[in-house]
Amino acid sequence: MDLGLTGKRALVLASSRGLGLGIAEAIAAEGCNVMLTGRSGDRLAEAAEAINKRGAGKAQFVVSDLSDKATPAMLADKVKAEFGGLDILVNNTGGPPPGAMADADLEVVHRQFEIMVLSVMDLTARVLPGMRAQNWGRVLTVASSGVIQPIPNLGLSNALRSTLVGWSKSMANEIGGDGVTFNMLLPGRVETARLKELDAANAKRSGKSLEDVAAAAKSQIPAGRYGAVEEFGATAAFLVSAKASYINGSLIRCDGGAIKSV
Questions:
Q1: Which of 75, 83, 190, 202 could be cross-linked to 227 through a Cys-Cys bond (beta carbons 3.0 to 4.6 Å apart)?
Q2: Is the pLDDT of residue 202 over 90?
Q3: Residues of each domain in the chain carrying CATH 3.40.50.720
Q4: Which pLDDT band, with edges at 50, 70 and 90, does 153 fall under?
């Protein structure tokens, strides 16, 4: 299937590794030109080089940190200068520290809200006029299965990412007639460095071995395993494609069936 991504221009946040990189690789393989972002220049350079060696879409990168309030404006200016505009925005951010919501430090809550929520809203607002003017755009926001079924010991993540659900749906309702779709992609337990960190935190908290924690988690997933980054990236590539033009305002799960609700 031709996804109609050849020559499209994409900005993928937090794409030096993990889910963000998986998305960037998947859409670049379809001919999309991607701007990678992250805090590690070394990892970004390595990722961009690997994408460019494969052919199809090309990759550039910009070192950036969403904890800096100037970053959204800088990124919007960068894609304007390098690409002449933007067709696809993938909002992907790192997660906050694990822990119970009742124990959350309000200063941490405020800071993480700025990084995970306000930065996404700010950046989207800066690139949206161009998408609306060309009557074509895709805004895909990566969240977590915790927005549907709150995840134990990830209280702050559950709360902050849920804010983006209301935002994305509202934007879909308001902007859908302009050829721009807003959707959210919800990973379950996809095998990344972040997942290993969370499993390690759970092991420390429970006193169990890392292997036992992982085995217990997999036993609760109907697929019986953790997901692969490539599977997640392929799902994202379809959602930002020309073929997905009638998918708007949706929460798409990529979780192996782990969420228990219908």
A1: 190
A2: no
A3: 9-190+228-254
A4: confident
Reduce the secondary structure of the chain to three states and give it as a string.
Answer: CCCCCCCCEEEECCCCCHHHHHHHHHHHHCCCEEEEEECCHHHHHHHHHHHHHHCCCCEEEEECCCCCCCHHHHHHHHHHHHHCCCCEEEECCCCCCCECHHHCCHHHHHHHHHHHHHHHHHHHHHHHHHHHHHCCEEEEEECCHHHCCCCCCEHHHHHHHHHHHHHHHHHHHHHHHHCEEEEEEEECCECCHHHHHHHHHHHHHHCCCHHHHHHHHHHCCCCCCCECHHHHHHHHHHHCCHHHCCCCCCEEEECCCCCCCC
Q: How long is the chain?
A: 262
Please check whether the domain covering 9-190+228-254 is classified as CATH 3.40.1030.10: no
